[in-house]
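Quick review question:
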């Protein structure tokens, strides 16, 4: 059942939080006063981080984001609404002067070790512009 799907404190989210904390970054979780309720917020740097599941947030071109074959109309509409809501929240955050990073599930899976992920996160936090994504299709150097 979908009621068993957690939206907070997921395994990928906890992994990102652990790595950020290890690097000395301090953050707040699930700030409801910000558009989209970002998973991780670094308030002093005005950075909002979303950790998205590829299926639930319809990651374009990702092998993990397949629409189920049963009740396809329902799922396509639901997942498209999720994606549109994400895009609106990111646009609002950027308009408010926040930097936004989306870390996709596909990036956290696979052969990425903690050191590689920590380096990519740190590089983005320290150097990148107002928006970025870490996904299977991007490299650690993308800003």
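Suggested answer, residue by residue:
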């Amino acid at each position: 059942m979908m009621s068993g799907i957690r939206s907070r404190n997921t395994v990928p989210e906890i992994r990102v939080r652990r790595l950020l904390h290890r690097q000395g970054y301090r953050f707040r979780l699930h700030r409801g006063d910000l558009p989209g309720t970002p998973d991780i917020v670094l308030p002093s740097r005005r950075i909002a981080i979303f950790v998205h599941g590829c299926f639930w947030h319809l990651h374009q071109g990702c092998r993990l984001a397949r629409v189920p074959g049963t009740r396809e109309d329902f799922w396509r509409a639901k997942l498209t609404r999720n994606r549109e809501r994400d895009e609106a929240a990111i646009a609002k955050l950027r308009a408010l002067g926040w930097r936004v990073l989306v870390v996709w599930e596909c990036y956290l899976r696979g052969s990425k070790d903690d050191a590689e992920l920590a380096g990519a996160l740190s590089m983005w936090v320290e150097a990148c512009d107002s928006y970025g994504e870490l996904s299977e299709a991007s490299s650690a150097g993308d800003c």
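Why it works: The chain has one domain: 2-134. DSSP finds four helices and five strands in the chain.
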